[in-house]
Amino acid sequence: FDGGTDGHASWAVGYEDAAEEIEGLVETGRKAGAANDPKKSCPWKKGTDGERFWLKGWSEGMQTQAGA
Q: How many degrees, rounded to 5, is the angle at CA 25 between CA 2 and CA 66?
């Protein structure tokens, strides 16, 4: 959508909501990894986007925890 149109405004709101949700999943996973929680503690069903983003954060958190 072109900027300034109603379609663009609607798209932007949806995009921002999705980006916030994704960052929340990553951050939750990051905290779990930093706390050395096991990978199996992921609360999301296997194969879902929730699992994928949580595991991304978990991996980052594990690296942070290992470097501490």
A: 125
Of 49, 42, 51, nearest in space to 18 by CA: 49
Angle, helices 6-34 vs 49-67, to 10°: value is 50
Structure pTM?
0.80
Is residue 51 within 8 Å of 22, Cβ to Cβ? no
pLDDT, tens digit, 9 for 90 and up, residues 6-65 = 787 888 888 899 999 999 999 999 999 999 999 999 999 999 999 999 999 999 999 987
